[in-house]
Amino acid sequence: MLVAVASVISQERAEEILAPHLDAVGSCLFNAWDHWRTTELPLSVSARARANLVYDFAVGEARSILEGREGLVLTDERGFLAVNVEEKLLLRFKKYRGKGLATSGISTLQKRLFDHQQLSIAGMEQVTGIIAGYELDEFQRDIRRVAITCRMGASLIWTIEVSRPDASGVVPIGTPDQPRPKTEVRSARSKEEESAQEGS
Amino acid sequence: MSPEVNPDLIELARESRGMTQSALAEATGSISQPLISKIEHGTHTPSPERLEAIAAALKYPPEFFHQSGRIGWTVCLHHRKRQSMPVTRLKMIHAQVNIARMQVMRLMRGIEIDSPLTFPRMDIAEYESPEQIARLARGHWRLPIGPVRSVIAAIEDAGGVVLRGDFDTTRLDAISIWVPGGPPFFFMNPGMPGDRWRWSLAHEMGHALMHTQPTADQEAEADRFASEFLMPADEIHSELVRLTMPRLAELKERWKVSMQALIRRAYQLEVITQRQQRSFFMRFSQMGYRKQEPFPIPQEEPQLLQSILEVHQTKHGYDAAELARSAFMSEEEFRTAYMPAAGKSRLRLVS
Description:
Chain A has five helices and seven strands. Chain A has helices at 11-18, 22-37, 47-65, 109-115, 191-199; strands at residues 72-75, 82-85, 89-95, 128-136, 143-152, 155-162, 184-187. In chain A, strands 1-2-3-4-5-6 form a six-stranded mixed beta sheet. By secondary structure, chain B is α/β, with parallel strands linked by helices. In chain B, strands 1-4-5-3-6 form a five-stranded mixed beta sheet, with helices on both faces. Chain B has helices spanning 7-16, 21-28, 33-41, 48-58, 87-107, 130-140, 151-157, 194-210, 218-230, 233-236, 245-255, 259-268, 274-286, 304-314, 320-326, 331-338, and strands spanning 77-81, 111-114, 161-166, 172-177, 185-188, 347-348. Chain B has three domains: 1-68, lambda repressor-like DNA-binding domains (434 Repressor (Amino-terminal Domain)), CATH 1.10.260; 72-230 and 303-351, Arc Repressor Mutant, subunit A; 237-302, no CATH class. Chain B is elongated, with a radius of gyration of 22 Å. Strand 7 (184-187) of chain A pairs antiparallel with strand 2 of chain B.
């Protein structure tokens, strides 16, 4: 049985704690998505397979971007990668399902504990579980938003938006034409004519 | 004896500059409007001095008016309009593309173009449907099954000429013109997304292949041709099943056509109902994607004219001034149209 905890960290306090790390956390997700967009697969994959791949890429990015950063400790003692932020927040990566920023997944005990703010990590007495997640656009071709959320069960307590560090607008899909065998274009003049012209 | 003046070219040049006979008369400062009218009708031959004055007013070299040859509007000229345009504006653009065609034909002199394929005439009256002609054209040009990688490559490999033409309006997407004895020409408005550029080219290609004579339904026929040419029913049908917004984005990338064209195709092929089609379009309207879709497709790039100019420069040793003279253009206009300092060659089709 799950027992509700007294409180979670307020949005203001969370913003303060996350401020130095926001871009880095956002980069883990944006880079993971960009990695997915440039990954060539021999077949079309399902949305679930894509989410799994993006998650794995995000974990890879986190290990490369966040590990060793002051105030952050990466842990996978619970069987998934989580980021201990200043020993106050426990952040994990997820994909949001829609505008309500809910997440999906099999309702394991771990998930339920996390969702109800009851997950504990060794060395952290009271920790607020938060999600760094991405929501896709309607076409599922690009990230619509990245946000850090704090939930208590089904209730969304607060949201912190994360913008792309170097937002560069719409990226064209497809690739420009590759070089192709061209229609051959050559001089119709004979060598004699060309020599005569060169000599004139 | 002076070479003969082609009166049609005086009228064509005047229209290309958007001038009336009175405006031309005034610009010459010495020739009356009735005399301009007589010259254009061929009932009066201008003296070399008067021709000089007309040429200066119209900003073409006098040699331009001594060319013989046919003018495209009486033969086969089509355009893909998005909105109605004033007739005078359309006439001006038609005159400009005719002159551009003549200029490029002049630039093709001394050049041998070895096209691996040909551009066949397939008159719509002799075939079952535009779809059948599209399938035959794909076969004739040996296009592989699936999406057309490059519409421009298909045209250029068949000996057609594609040019960017700055119509100075967004109301007109493309114009094609095919005068017997020369290759078909396609003038494309550069201010379009890549997917519409491909569709307009395929539409104009349909005209060039099918419409030696105008038909009552020629615009709808050209659209049907473009639809089958870019999205063959047999090949795309199974891919349109269970159409969703994400799937549309995937298919746009694969087939390089707009998502709205895919929705229409799905409806034509009875994969979705009219109600579903309407629902998709309503969602597009709500998101503001009817006029400008996300995930732009890069525009294709014509290569043939560039290759022609390269041969003239590297093999024949011509510089811009000589090339301009051979095309009966001023050097300035030639450079603007065919040799911009940076970026893509773009015919400036406005006076």
